[in-house]
Amino acid sequence: MNLNEPPVIDFAPFYANDSTKEDLIQQIKQACEQFGFFQLINHPIPTKLQTAVLQHSKEFFNLPLETKEKYNLTTDSFNRGYERLRSQNFDKRTKGDLKEGFFLGKDLPLDDAYVLQRRFGQGPNKYPSEVTDPKGFRRVMDEYHDAMIELSVAIMQVLAHTLGLDGDAFRDFCDHPVAVLRLLRYPPQEADASGFEKGIGAHTDFGAITMLLQDDTGGLQVWNNLSSEWVDVTPVPGAYVVNLGNMTMRWTNNRYLSNLHRVINTSGKERFSVPFFFSGNPNYTIRCLPGCEGPEGAKYPPITVHEWMTGRYADTYGRSEGAIGEMRQTGGNV
Ligand SMILES: O=C(O)CCC(=O)C(=O)O
Ligand SMILES: [Fe+2]
């Protein structure tokens, strides 16, 4: 059976641990093969926490530009903080993506072993002090980050099952992971915008899985390989849009798709979304999984998470060794 758009899947059977779990595994497997995208409902993240994240995000983006710029992520090499409008560019025909962002991760002290080793994405957060409740902002973001790591581990267990592996096959990958929370705001596109203008140009994600919370505005689209067209990922209140990143494609030798997606916000109002990128332990080596080789063997050489992520960011953001350049040249995030 072919799907017209990524399916909405009930995650409750994961916790029920009864015969319905096998059905859940099969639904996710099919979605991974056809779209590399699905939506998850009945997951354990409380609606109240999701609402609080979106509210704090909105409040931060409402601050004056010069205040937001104080937290610019280019002031250090930890990849945390504010990313101004049009910083990233996934479509060279435009002046850059029509979105602004704010990156958060696990808030690690400077003497953490991974931070000292300058492992990718490890470091301290930046927290804005100009929002009305700075402590609340920090508490909510930290709590949400922890909860999203737990959900990521659960989804990685299901992915292992879909591939006929033990539930803990990705245990080492899930330890001390690179996990990035990205608050995003998309202003409405101008009515006279060029046909190329995008909130975020077509790209694939770098990590293992992304779990995206979106408001009810709409505008996210995914490529349907079977019908060769963009299809909407229709907002479902409280649901997570889960998509597979490049690492999962490498693990499975292309059995699972790391699929192209983009955002075009023609709604006439601003759109908020919050992707969470789960990219695993920086020292873990991604290699073709047992049973995925096929007759021609592995298509991709082994690579560590640190090397992969550093390379992908350098390609698409023009950064290297922590020095941050202009984020203009990009060949897409594939
Ligand atoms: O905002 C969205 O809906 C998509 C964001 C996205 O694809 C990304 O940040 O990689
Ligand atoms: Fe993405």
Task: Please give a structural write-up.
With 334 residues, the chain is α+β, with helices and mostly antiparallel strands. It is built from nine helices and 16 strands. An eight-stranded mixed sheet has the order 1-2-10-7-12-5-4-3. It has a four-stranded antiparallel sheet with strand order 6-11-8-9, with no helix packed on it. Strands 13-14 form a two-stranded antiparallel sheet. Strand 15 and strand 16 (323-324) form a beta hairpin. Helix 2 (20-34) crosses helix 6 and helix 3 (47-61) crosses helix 6 (134-162). Mean pLDDT is 91; it is low at 319-334. The chain binds 2-oxoglutaric acid and fe (ii) ion. The site of 2-oxoglutaric acid (AKG) has 11 residues, from strand 5, strand 7, strand 11 and strand 12.
Helix content: 25-40%
Radius of gyration: 19 Å
How big a fraction of the residues is strand?
Answer: 15-25%
In the predicted model, the low-confidence regions spanning at least 5 consecutive residues are: 319-334
Largest sheet descriptor: 8 strands, mixed
Mean pLDDT, nearest integer? 91
The H/E string reads: EHHEHHEEHHHEEEEEEHEEEEHEE
User: Order of strands across the biggest sheet?
Assistant: 1-2-10-7-12-5-4-3
Ligands, ions, cofactors: 2-oxoglutaric acid, fe (ii) ion
Category by helix and strand content = alpha+beta
Distance between the termini: 27 Å
**Tally of strands:** 16
How many helical elements? 9
Shape: globular
